[in-house]
Specification:
The structure holds two protein chains of two kinds. Chain A has helices at about 30-35, 90-105, 115-120, 160-165, 205, 215-225, 275-280; strands at about 15-20, 20-25, 60-65, 70, 85, 145-150, 175, 185, 215, 230-240, 245-255, 255-260. By secondary structure, chain A is α+β, with helices and mostly antiparallel strands. Chain A has a five-stranded mixed β-sheet with strand order 2-1-5-3-4, with helices on both faces. In chain A, strands 10-11-12 form a three-stranded antiparallel β-sheet. Chain B folds into five domains: about 15-70, no CATH class; about 85-165, Glutaredoxin; about 230-435, Rossmann fold, CATH 3.40.50.11540; about 445-525, Ubiquitin-like (UB roll) (Roll), CATH 3.10.20.600; about 530-620, de novo design (two linked rop proteins) (Up-down Bundle). In chain B, about 40% of the residues lie in helices and about 15% in strands. Chain B is built from 24 helices and 14 strands. In chain B, strand 12 (about 485-490) and strand 13 form a beta hairpin. The N and C termini of chain B lie far apart (about 60 Å). Classes of the chains: A alpha+beta, B alpha/beta. At the A-B interface, helix 2 and strand 7 of A face helix 4, helix 20, helix 21 and helix 22 of B.
C-alpha cells in the first residue's frame, strides 16, 4: 500500500538549508520533496511518487555537508540543520557520469524528453566510453498478445518489480535476477510470461520510464512505422467493468485505442489498473 | 499469498529429502531460503526447477523471487552441470603462485571453464579469491550427492584437483617445509592436520609467541576440544563479563578504544552501546565471517584454529548488548572453518555455554551459522542482512544504520571475527590496559594477511605502529631475494604503495595520512617479476563480477573501468594512456560519490594508484 490517500497527522517542522536558502518542511519529508517545495529541479529516474523509493539510479544525488558520499534525495529524510547543495561540482559530476553510463549501456530513445534535457543540462556525452562499450543487448521478448519486454531499454529502476510486488499488484511474477551488469528483470528461470504468475494488469508498463515494457499494440505500430503521437488524442473516462471507478486515459490514434493508462495522482488507482481496464478495450473497436 | 509455481516441475525424491532435511519443521519463512538452496545445490549439483518449486512451496516464496535470489550467488548453478566442480581461484594472490598455468592445464584436461566435455563427470570454473592466499593456488572442490563434498585444495596441482574431483581422499599438503628459522613447537601437531604453521608462521617461533594475543592459541589449542580451550584460558572472559554485568562490559569495550577491524574502523564501544540501549526488541548479533576481500584470510585462521574463542566473544557481545540470537555469516569458501565452528557451537551448547541458561547465569544466547554462496558483496553489512533474510544480497542505503534497523529491521550489532576476537582480552584484562597497546589512535594488536612474493606468507600479529617494511621483513622479505616492485595494501578495495613507502606506520591514522587504509589487513607483495598490468586487469574484472548490479555508478561503472583497463593492457588506449587515466578519474569520482556502498566507492583506488604511483600502462607518474 502506498497510503497516499490518508493525510498524515500534523507534524513538527524541520528547518534546513538547501543551496543557501532556509527551507522549512514537515518532519519526514524527503530531500527530493523539500527541493521540489522550493522549486529546485532535481532529476529522477527510478523515483515514482506511488512506489517505495529504491534509490538505485543515483541521478538525484545531492551533497549533504558532513556526509562522505553524496546522498540520494529521493529517499533521504530531512534532518534539522542539514546543509544541502544540489548543484555543486560533485553533484553535477556524478549526475553527468550516471547519465553517461546509462546512455552508453541501454537505449534511452523512448525515455521521456526530460531525460534528454537532463543529459544536456549536465553535459553528458555517453560516446566517450568508446564505440565498443558493452551494451545490454537482448532480443525483444514477445511471448503474449498484450505486452512486450525489451530489456535493451531497461535501466533496472526496479519500478516494474515494485509495481508487480508489494507496492501495487502483489503478484510477484518478476524479480531482478543475476548480478552486476548481467542483472536483468526476469520470471523464474526466465520462462515466458504465460507460464509465470503474471496476471497482465500491465502495471509494470504503467511505471516503466524507458519504454522497455510496452503495449504490444504500440510495439507493432512502432515496428510498422505507423506510431505517430502527433495524431494521437487522449480521452479520459471511467472504467465500466466494475464499481471501483478507475479513471482511464485512452490514447487514440486513427480512431483506435492504442494504449490505456490511469493518472498517477488519481486517488483510486494511483496509476494502477487491472487487466480489464488496461487491456479490455477491444470491444470498443469491434465495428 | 497465492503462489504460482512453475508448471509441471517436480523435485526428485532426493532433492525433496535434502530440502526437507535442511528445513526440518521450520516455519514457512523466507529467511530459510539460502539454507534450502544450499541443500538443493549440494544434492543435485544445481538448482533444478523442481527443487526451486518445492523450496518456494515450503517457504511460501514466489518462484520469481527465489530465482532472483538463487541466480545472485556464484556458487548456485541455475542450469544442470556435472556434479563435481572445481572452483579454481585465479585471483591476484593465486596468480602470483601459478594459477594461470593451473587453469591452462585444467582447460587441456576438462575443457573450457563451465563448458564440460561431453559425458564428463566433472567441470571447473574460475573463481575470485577464496581466502587461502598463504598457500595458493587453491580450488574449492564441490561434489554434489547424498554425502556432499566441500573441500579446499591448497597448493593445488592439476593432479590434486583431478584427484579431488574424482572423490579420492587425496589430502593435498603444502609441499614446502617450515623454513629453518621457524621451528615446530610441542603443541603444533594439534589435530592431525597440524598445518597452522603454514597459516600463521609466527606462532611456531617460541620467542615470538609472548607478543601474541589474537593468535595466542593458534597452533597450540585443539580446535575440537572445549576442555583444551578451557585449559588455555577459555571462558575466563565470559566469567568476568557475567561478574561485571552488561554495563561493565560496555565500559571496558569503550575504554579499550577498540576500532572495528572489518575495514571501516568504527568504535566498537559506540556500536555496542547504541544497540544495548536501543528500546526496540529483539536485538541481533552478527559475526561477519564473510571475509572475501582478495588477499584476506585472517578470520579464517582464527575460526579454524580457535573456534571456541569466537563463540565466547560472541556470547559476551550478546550478553552486553541484549541479544539472544547471534549469527555467524560465513563464506561458503570456508568449509573447514564452518565445520569446526559448527562442532564448537554444538560442544558449547552441550556444556551449557550456549542456550537458555549460559553458565548457569540465567543468560539466554545461542548462535546459528549461515553460509554465504559466493558473493563478495555479502560482506557489506547491510547486504549481509538481506542475504540472511533470504533476499538478494543488495546493500541498503544508510541511514538507517544497523544499530537502529539492521537484521529483520531490528537493532543489530555486526562485528568482524577479528574485532570480536579482541573482546576476550579486553574483558579479561580491562579496557584501559588494552588501550595502552599500540598507538594513541589505534589500540591493540592487528592481524595482517601477508601474501604474494614473500618468503613466509601467512597471518601475522603485530602491535599497531609496526612499519610496513618491518612486517614484510617479518614475513621473510621478498622471496628469492628479488626486488620489491609494489605492495597492495587493503586488498582489491585498497591501494598500491611503492617501495618508497615502506616506512608507513601500519595504524589507522598512519595509513590514512598517506592516502591509504588498512582495510581488512591485506599486505600483498609483488616483486619485480610480476606483471602489474595483469594484476590490475584482474582487479578490474573482480569488481565487475562482484558488483551486485543495484546502483548505476557501480553496475555500469565497473564494466566501463574494466573495458578501460582492457584497452590499456592491449596497448590500444582511446587517445593516450593519460587520456584514459583522466577518464578513469571521472568514473572513479562518480563511483566514489554516488554508489550506494563501499564496493563501488572503492572499486577504482587500486587501479588509479597503480597507474599514478607505479606508472602501470605507461601513464605518467605523478
Amino acid at each position: 500500500m502506498t497510503g497516499a490517500a490518508i493525510p498524515a497527522p500534523p507534524s513538527r517542522e524541520v528547518e534546513l538549508t538547501i543551496d543557501g536558502r532556509q527551507v522549512r518542511v514537515p518532519e519526514g519529508t524527503t530531500l527530493l520533496q523539500a527541493c521540489r517545495s522550493v522549486g529546485i529541479d532535481t532529476p529522477t529516474l527510478c523515483y515514482l511518487e506511488t512506489l517505495t523509493p529504491v534509490n538505485v539510479c543515483r541521478v538525484c544525488v545531492v551533497e549533504v555537508e558532513g556526509s562522505r558520499a553524496l546522498v540520494p534525495a529521493c529517499s533521504r529524510p530531512v534532518e534539522p540543520k542539514m546543509v544541502v547543495h544540489t548543484d555543486s561540482e560533485r553533484v553535477r559530476h556524478s549526475r553527468r557520469v550516471v547519465f553517461e553510463l546509462l546512455a552508453s549501456s541501454v537505449d534511452l530513445s523512448l525515455a521521456p524528453a526530460r531525460v534528454r534535457e537532463d543529459m544536456a543540462r549536465y553535459g553528458a556525452s555517453p560516446e566517450r566510453f568508446g564505440p565498443r562499450a558493452a551494451r545490454v543487448a537482448q532480443p525483444v521478448k514477445v511471448d503474449n498478445e498484450l505486452y512486450v519486454r525489451d530489456y535493451s531499454r531497461c535501466i533496472l529502476c526496479y519500478k516494474c518489480v515494485e509495481a508487480c510486488g508489494a507496492d501495487a499488484q502483489n503478484t510477484f511474477a518478476i524479480a531482478v535476477s543475476g548480478r552486476g551488469f548481467g542483472a536483468t528483470i526476469a520470471t523464474e528461470f526466465d520462462h515466458p510470461l504465460p507460464d509465470s504468475a503474471c496476471v497482465y494488469c500491465g502495471n509494470c508498463i504503467g511505471v516503466c520510464p524507458t519504454g522497455a515494457l510496452m503495449f504490444k499494440s504500440e510495439h507493432d505500430m512502432r515496428a510498422a512505422g505507423t506510431w505517430d503521437e502527433s495524431r494521437q488524442t487522449v480521452t479520459e473516462t471511467i472504467c465500466g467493468y466494475c464499481g471501483v471507478g478507475c479513471t482511464l486515459q485512452l490514447r487514440v490514434q486513427d480512431n483506435s485505442i492504442v494504449r490505456v493508462t490511469s493518472p498517477l495522482d488519481h486517488d483510486v488507482t494511483s496509476g494502477h489498473l487491472c487487466i480489464k481496464g488496461r487491456f479490455g478495450f477491444q470491444f470498443v473497436q469491434n465495428r | 499469498m497465492d503462489l504460482h509455481l512453475i508448471p509441471s516441475a517436480v523435485p526428485s525424491s532426493e532433492e525433496r529429502a535434502a530440502i526437507d532435511a535442511a528445513l526440518g519443521t521450520c516455519a514457512a519463512d523466507r529467511q530459510w531460503l539460502l539454507p534450502a538452496l544450499h541443500a538443493a545445490q549440494e544434492r543435485a549439483g544445481w538448482i533444478s526447477e523442481g527443487a526451486l518449486n518445492y523450496i518456494c512451496e515450503r517457504l511460501s516464496v514466489p518462484p520469481a523471487d527465489a530465482y532472483g535470489v538463487a541466480s545472485f550467488y556464484a556458487l548456485f548453478a541455475m542450469a544442470k552441470r556435472p556434479r563435481a566442480v572445481a572452483h579454481v581461484c585465479d585471483d591476484i594472490a593465486c596468480r602470483v603462485n601459478g594459477a594461470e598455468a593451473l587453469c591452462g592445464a585444467l582447460e587441456a584436461r576438462l575443457g573450457k571453464p563451465g563448458e564440460p566435455l561431453p559425458g564428463a563427470s566433472a567441470t571447473w570454473l574460475r573463481s575470485p579469491c577464496q581466502g587461502h592466499c598463504e598457500r595458493g593456488p587453491v580450488a574449492l572442490v564441490q561434489i554434489a550427492g547424498p554425502n556432499p563434498v566441500n573441500t579446499t585444495v591448497t597448493a593445488a596441482t592439476i593432479e590434486s584437483i583431478l584427484g579431488s574431483l574424482a572423490g579420492s581422499t587425496f589430502e593435498p599438503r603444502a609441499t614446502s617445509q617450515p623454513p629453518s628459522r621457524v621451528r615446530a613447537t610441542a603443541g603444533q601437531a594439534n589435530n592431525g592436520e597440524g598445518d597452522s604453521w603454514i597459516a600463521a608462521p609466527q606462532t611456531t617461533v617460541p620467542e615470538w609467541r609472548p607478543g601474541l594475543r589474537l593468535l595466542r592459541r593458534v597452533g597450540v589449542v585443539d580446535p575440537a576440544s572445549l576442555d583444551d580451550y578451557r585449559a588455555h584460558g577459555g571462558y575466563a572472559a565470559l566469567r568476568r563479563a557475567l561478574d561485571v554485568g552488561p554495563e561493565g562490559v560496555l565500559r571496558e569495550i569503550t575504554e579499550s578504544r577498540l576500532l572495528g577491524r572489518g575495514g571501516a574502523a568504527f568504535p566498537t564501544g559506540r556500536k555496542w552501546e547504541a544497540v544495548a540501549h536501543a528500546a526496540v526488541r529483539p536485538h541481533y548479533l552478527i559475526c561477519n565471517a564473510d571475509e572475501s576481500e582478495p588477499g584476506t584470510f585472517k578470520d579464517r585462521v582464527l575460526m579454524e584454529e580457535d573456534p571456541f574463542a569466537l563463540i565466547e566473544a560472541m556470547t559476551i557481545a550478546g550478553y552486553a548488548t541484549g541479544c539472544e540470537t547471534g549469527y555467524v555469516y560465513i563464506r561458503a569458501e570456508y568449509p573447514r572453518a564452518t565445520s569446526r565452528l559448527a562442532h564448537a557451537i554444538e560442544r558449547a551448547r552441550l556444556r551449557g555455554l550456549l542456550g537458555d541458561d549460559v553458565m548457569g547465569a540465567g543468560v539466554r544466547f545461542d548462535i546459528q551459522i549461515r553460509r554465504g554462496a559466493g558473493a563478495y558483496i555479502c560482506g557489506e553489512e547491510t547486504a549481509l542482512f538481506n542475504s540472511i533474510e533470504g533476499k538478494r544480497g543488495e546493500p541498503r542505503n544508510k541511514p538507517p544504520f544497523p544499530v537502529q534497523a539492521g537484521l529483520f529491521g531490528k537493532p543489530t550489532v555486526i562485528n568482524s571475527v577479528e574485532t570480536l576476537a579482541n573482546v576476550l582480552d579486553i574483558v579479561s584484562q580491562g579496557g584501559p590496559a588494552f588501550s595502552r597497546i599500540g598507538t594513541a589512535a589505534s589500540s591493540g594488536t592487528k592481524l595482517f594477511c601477508v601474501s604474494g612474493c614473500v618468503e613466509r606468507p601467512g597471518v601475522y600479529e603485530v602491535n599497531f605502529g609496526a612499519l610496513l617494511g618491518d612486517l614484510i621483513e617479518f614475513a621473510g622479505g621478498v622471496r628469492g631475494g628479488r626486488r620489491l616492485q609494489a605492495v597492495l595494501l587493503g586488498g582489491a578495495a585498497g591501494v598500491f604503495v611503492t617501495p618508497d613507502e615502506l616506512g608507513m606506520p601500519l595504524t589507522f591514522e598512519g595509513t590514512r595520512a598517506q592516502g591509504a587504509a588498512l582495510g581488512s589487513g591485506v599486505v600483498m607483495v609483488f616483486d619485480d617479476s610480476i606483471d602489474l598490468g595483469d594484476i590490475v586487469h584482474r582487479i578490474a574484472a573482480f569488481f565487475r563480477e562482484e558488483s551486485c548490479g543495484q546502483c548505476v555508478p557501480c553496475r555500469v561503472g565497473t564494466i566501463r573501468q574494466e573495458e578501460l583497463v582492457h584497452r590499456l593492457r592491449a596497448g590500444a588506449p582511446m587517445g593516450s594512456a593519460a587520456a584514459e587515466l583522466a577518464l578513469l578519474d571521472d568514473l572513479a569520482g562518480a563511483m566514489r560519490d554516488a554508489s550506494i556502498c563501499g564496493l563501488g566507492q572503492t572499486a577504482s583506488g587500486a587501479i588509479q594508484t597503480a597507474m599514478r604511483k607505479l606508472g602501470v600502462f605507461g601513464a605518467t607518474k605523478s
